[in-house]
């Protein structure tokens, strides 16, 4: 008997169930790419038959971080850069939860970069969506880790001297087992990729291009875009780490030259997730830990019985 | 301080096995019916560097290290980097002998390993021996060990010599070695033990000195534990099964104990990328319905400020452990200090909404860790345990029965799915997890995955459903509700049968010594010495830092003419907290501070009290500092 009956409910779900009564209308600027993520996430969740009570959506701080105000589910709007450590602990505590983390490019690749690297490395079984608008949106348009070199903003008046971060390559070298890029302007692909990411057993990273018409007017709206899986011009094996790495490097360069390449860039279905690895060495209990606290028949261990002898 | 005690100091290089030898020796003495208390001194290095452990042994309960000591076993630093005088660290090899002479009491015993050490390298050694009436035994422990086994076994030879000289029955040591050592090394160690013992018995006059082990008997079974052990076991018994952390001395001890033990009881431990992640993981695990903790020492705790504030704002129960060491910054990693009190009380933005306990003893560390979890989960608030390298590392014997308690895995104010059905929801289905008007300010939570329980947790100010809101009405209602918990928790703590504050001495004493955390035992010992000398003194060891025990401390201060506040920091943080909380007593409280890296010894307090409070003089010297009361 589970204390968490929303998990694995398996009923039909309508995507409108994910529209909260409290804030049905997002306050994002008109034309903002963030709407695209919200829509794709609702569609994917409904299509997978996940109910609002079995999803935990953790977010960072930023315009993107407002996602869970507009998405009806269990939500944790955390701190700037900290959606991942909160998300992965929740997944360890209760592996049945559908855990999705989301945040901005500043949030995930800048202030939270260390967590990104390590969560990918450990291959936690969860989905991570980075709203990449190549700018700090909420704080009014400063240069972000993904802004192109030469990007001018109030804090980089002479144009940024820094090369942008390579988010896909970073995910791959860190250890993510699913790496994709999609764009708000491509809702069908976005939904499909989110579905794949949620179904993937391991860390699935989606670099989601979200245009910011308010602060990043100069940037392209990410149209036209090319889906590399649909194009004959790009031939690489998505399961091969080396080919994926080469492809990612090309994709990252192309973005700043005006070509928007999207699709799946690395998929490793064989690598066990962190949860599986940890269970294999006996460091995660068979039953979800969270269930134990609701199980009245569980005999809780006492230190007096288990650990005191060596002190006698 | 009585003469009827043995204070044995084993000194060597770090990496020489001093810690495990002394731990075994202490345990053997405990099993023989005596009370023991250990004190460690070690450098922040893996190998090499002078280190010692002191074991104070008495027939009475021991609460503190003593003043000085009376038996030195100097092994020599076998990892010494540079034996030459004048090198950066000086002549390291000889330090276990040369550095320990100042504190050796008159009439004390010196045993040193002549296989490694040459006393003639120490200036005026013979003169000092004579002047202090020390009894010196130089034995080639190294050769003895090498003959039967390996050189590292010279520790055992030293223990054998100690037994012969101090009148300790080697049966206790043998039993313990049999329990603790794998067979392969047991035989040679036993041979060495006996050979050393017999050699001394046969060839030396063991009664030339009167440093002997006292006799004692326990009326119930004892266990030898450190504060770190007690914190770890308190967590386990309160149902904690999740820990995330990042190593940092001295908090690493608690982290290690739980990492090693959790797999045996179905718990989860995570060593993560940094302390921000560590505290955030604890928040995430607790949010998802598990009793969770994290911790660190000063610098790592600084990184936890944001997640700690998030736990306050989202009312997510967590327990954080802060093991203080001398600061600022990297400070002195292996030295104790109590200078993180304000750091722990106030770090993170906004008004603090947390609980902080500073236990004073091993038993209190266990009890208060359990209370910390209980309160955290009942009241949905972060609870912190503030301790230091001293309490964390000192071993002492405690009745085993102290730990014979029922576990409490209760998640506190959490609803089940059935209860959620009748709980208030918004029109569109969100559970009102942060209701305005609730008893004691506690609005029960749901757990992700529960049907009908979904809500939004956010570090922003929020409505009852958790949605972001900035209206003044909602803001004030939520703030007041959260703050209300402090009063409720204070009332709960005041009603406890065993309160957290510890009183010692005569109720109607004229003077008071006030302290917090790990200095409590030492202060109590100082009270005993002062009372013996005819002074009218009592003490209060305070553990509740937040919410502060205003009534109890007020009553204590009202009952004395003057009080001296004893703490291990330079800016009198605890005295400042006391005055802030009580809003007065500036003229009644003066401070005795120590921040040289060593905890107080009873004599520091005895002399400090007599000089400043009784004679009204200022203190001379480097060890402690006096800060007079306002208007003095
Ligand atoms: C520790 C901390 N530093 C700074 C901020 C201020 N801040 C909020 S959002 C943000 C950047 C937002 O950029 P991004 O993460 O790309 O999200 P976007 O708004 O573009 O979606 C900053 C700097 C903060 N909330 N916390
Ligand atoms: S500022 Fe940019 S990212 Fe933020 S809501 Fe407006 S368009 Fe979207
Ligand atoms: Mg951004």
UniProtKB/TrEMBL annotation, chain A:
GO biological process annotation, one example: cellular respiration
GO MF entries: oxidoreductase activity, acting on the aldehyde or oxo group of donors, iron-sulfur protein as acceptor; thiamine pyrophosphate binding
UniProt keyword list: Oxidoreductase
Cofactor(s) demanded: [4Fe-4S] cluster
Superkingdom field: Archaea
UniProt-annotated stretches for the region Disordered: 1-23, 140-165
Residue intervals of the Thiamine pyrophosphate enzyme TPP-binding domain: 61-208
InterPro entries, A to Z: 2-oxoacid:Fd_oxidoreductase, OFOB, THDP-binding, TPP_enzyme_TPP-bd
CDD domains the UniProt entry points to: TPP_OGFOR
Protein name, per record: Thiamine pyrophosphate-dependent enzyme
Biological source species: Natronocalculus amylovorans
Automatic annotation (TrEMBL), chain B:
EC number: 1.2.7.3
Record-linked NCBIfam families: OAFO_sf
Molecular function GO labels: 2-oxoglutarate synthase activity
Keywords in alphabetical order: Oxidoreductase
Subunit organization: Heterotetramer of the KorA, KorB, KorC and KorD subunits.
Name by which UniProt lists this protein: 2-oxoglutarate synthase subunit KorA
Residue span(s) of domain Pyruvate flavodoxin/ferredoxin oxidoreductase pyrimidine binding: 235-480
UniProt keyword Glycoprotein, yes or no: no
TM helices/strands, residue ranges: none
Catalytic activity as recorded in UniProt: 2 oxidized [2Fe-2S]-[ferredoxin] + 2-oxoglutarate + CoA = succinyl-CoA + 2 reduced [2Fe-2S]-[ferredoxin] + CO2 + H(+)
SUPFAM superfamilies: Pyruvate-ferredoxin oxidoreductase, PFOR, domain III (SSF53323), Thiamin diphosphate-binding fold (THDP-binding) (SSF52518), TK C-terminal domain-like (SSF52922)
Residue ranges annotated for the Pyruvate/ketoisovalerate oxidoreductase catalytic domain, each copy included: 15-198
Domain Pyruvate:ferredoxin oxidoreductase core: 509-584
Pfam family, any one: POR_N
UniProt cross-references to InterPro entries, sorted A to Z: 2-oxoacid/accept_OxRdtase_asu, PFOR_II, Pyruvate:ferred/Flavod_OxRd, Pyrv/ketoisovalerate_OxRed_cat, Pyrv_Fd/Flavodoxin_OxRdtase_N, Pyrv_flavodox_OxRed_cen, THDP-binding, Transketo_C/PFOR_II
GO biological process: organic acid metabolic process; response to oxidative stress; sulfur compound biosynthetic process
């Amino acid at each position: 008997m589970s204390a968490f009956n929303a998990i694995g409910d398996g009923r039909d779900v309508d995507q409108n169930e994910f529209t909260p009564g409290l804030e049905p209308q997002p306050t994002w600027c008109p034309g903002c790419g963030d709407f695209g993520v919200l829509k794709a996430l609702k569609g994917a969740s409904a299509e997978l038959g996940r109910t609002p009570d079995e999803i935990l959506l953790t977010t960072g701080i930023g315009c993107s971080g407002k996602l869970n105000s507009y998405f009806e589910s269990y939500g944790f709007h955390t701190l700037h850069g900290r959606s991942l450590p909160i998300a992965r602990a929740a997944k360890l505590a209760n592996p049945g939860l559908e855990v999705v983390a989301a945040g901005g490019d500043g949030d995930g690749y800048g202030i939270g970069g260390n967590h990104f690297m390590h969560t990918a490395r450990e291959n936690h079984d969860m989905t991570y969506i980075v709203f990449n608008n190549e700018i700090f949106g909420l704080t009014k348009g400063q240069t972000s880790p993904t802004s192109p070199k030469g990007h001018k903003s109030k804090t980089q008046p002479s144009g940024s001297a820094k090369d942008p971060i390579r988010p896909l390559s970073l995910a791959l070298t860190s250890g993510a087992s699913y790496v994709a890029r999609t764009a708000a302007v491509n809702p069908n692909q976005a939904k499909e990729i989110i579905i794949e990411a949620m179904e993937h057993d391991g860390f699935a990273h989606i670099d989601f291009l979200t245009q910011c018409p308010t602060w990043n007017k100069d940037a392209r709206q990410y149209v036209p875009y090319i889906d590399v899986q649909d194009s004959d011009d790009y031939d690489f094996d998505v399961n091969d780490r080396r080919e994926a790495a080469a492809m990612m490097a090309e994709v990252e360069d192309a973005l700043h030259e005006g070509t928007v390449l999207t699709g799946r860039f690395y998929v490793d279905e064989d690598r066990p997730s962190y949860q599986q690895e940890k269970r294999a060495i006996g460091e995660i209990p068979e039953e979800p830990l969270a269930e134990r606290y609701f199980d009245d028949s569980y005999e809780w261990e006492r230190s007096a019985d288990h650990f005191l002898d060596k002190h006698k | 301080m009585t003469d009827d005690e043995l204070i044995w100091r084993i000194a060597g290089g770090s990496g020489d096995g001093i810690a495990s030898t002394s731990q075994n020796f202490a345990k053997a003495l405990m099993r023989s019916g005596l009370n023991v208390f250990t004190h460690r001194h070690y450098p922040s290095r893996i190998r090499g560097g002078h280190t010692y452990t002191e074991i104070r042994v008495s027939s009475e309960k021991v609460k503190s290290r003593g003043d000085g000591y009376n038996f030195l076993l100097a092994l020599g630093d076998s990892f010494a980097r540079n034996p030459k005088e004048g090198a950066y660290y000086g002549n390291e090899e000889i330090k276990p002998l040369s550095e320990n002479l100042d504190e050796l009491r008159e009439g004390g015993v010196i045993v040193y390993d002549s296989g490694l050490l040459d006393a003639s390298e120490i200036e005026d050694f013979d003169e000092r021996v004579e002047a202090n009436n020390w009894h010196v035994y130089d034995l080639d422990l190294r050769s003895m060990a090498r003959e039967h086994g390996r050189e590292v076994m010279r520790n055992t030879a030293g223990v054998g010599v100690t037994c012969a000289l101090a009148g300790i029955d080697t049966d206790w040591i043998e039993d313990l070695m049999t329990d603790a050592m794998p067979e392969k090394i047991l035989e040679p160690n036993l041979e060495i033990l006996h050979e050393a013992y017999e050699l001394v018995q046969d060839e030396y006059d063991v009664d030339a000195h009167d440093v002997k082990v006292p006799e004692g008997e326990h009326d119930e079974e004892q266990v030898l534990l450190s504060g770190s052990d007690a914190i770890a076991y308190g967590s386990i018994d309160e149902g904690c099964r999740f820990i995330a952390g990042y190593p940092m001395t001295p908090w690493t001890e608690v982290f290690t104990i739980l990492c090693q033990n959790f797999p045996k009881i179905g718990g989860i431990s995570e060593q993560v990328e940094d302390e921000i992640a560590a505290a955030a993981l604890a928040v995430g695990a607790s949010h998802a319905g598990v009793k969770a903790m994290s911790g660190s020492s000063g610098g790592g705790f600084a990184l936890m400020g944001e997640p700690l504030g998030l736990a306050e704002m989202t009312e997510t129960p967590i327990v954080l452990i802060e093991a203080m060491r001398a600061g600022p910054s990297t400070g002195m990693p292996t030295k104790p200090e109590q200078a993180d009190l304000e750091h722990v009380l106030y770090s993170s933005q906004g008004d603090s909404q947390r609980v902080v306990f500073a236990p004073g003893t091993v038993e209190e560390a266990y009890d208060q860790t359990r209370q910390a979890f209980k309160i955290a989960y009942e009241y949905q608030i972060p609870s912190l345990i503030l301790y230091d390298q001293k309490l964390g590392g000192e071993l002492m014997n405690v009745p085993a029965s102290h730990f014979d308690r029922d576990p409490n895995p209760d998640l506190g104010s959490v609803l089940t799915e059935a209860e959620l059905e009748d709980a208030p929801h918004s029109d569109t289905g969100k559970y009102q997890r942060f209701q305005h008007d609730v008893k004691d300010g506690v609005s029960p939570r749901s757990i992700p995955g529960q049907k009908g329980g979904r809500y939004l947790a956010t570090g922003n100010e929020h409505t009852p459903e958790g949605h972001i809101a900035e209206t003044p009405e909602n803001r004030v209602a939520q703030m007041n509700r959260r703050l209300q918990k402090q009063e409720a928790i204070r009332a709960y703590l005041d009603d406890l049968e065993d309160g957290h504050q510890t009183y010692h001495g005569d109720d109607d004493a004229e003077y008071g010594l006030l302290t917090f955390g790990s200095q409590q035992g030492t202060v109590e010992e100082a009270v005993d010495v002062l009372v013996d000398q005819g002074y009218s003194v009592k003490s209060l060891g305070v553990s509740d830092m937040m919410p502060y025990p205003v009534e109890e401390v007020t009553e204590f201060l009202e009952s004395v003419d003057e009080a001296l506040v004893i703490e291990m920091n330079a800016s009198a943080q605890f005295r400042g907290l006391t005055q802030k909380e009580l809003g007065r007593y500036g003229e009644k409280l003066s401070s005795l501070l120590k921040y040289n890296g060593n905890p107080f010894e009873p004599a520091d307090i005895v002399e400090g009290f007599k000089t400043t409070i009784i004679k009204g003089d200022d203190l001379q010297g480097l060890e402690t500092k006096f800060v007079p009361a306002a208007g003095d």
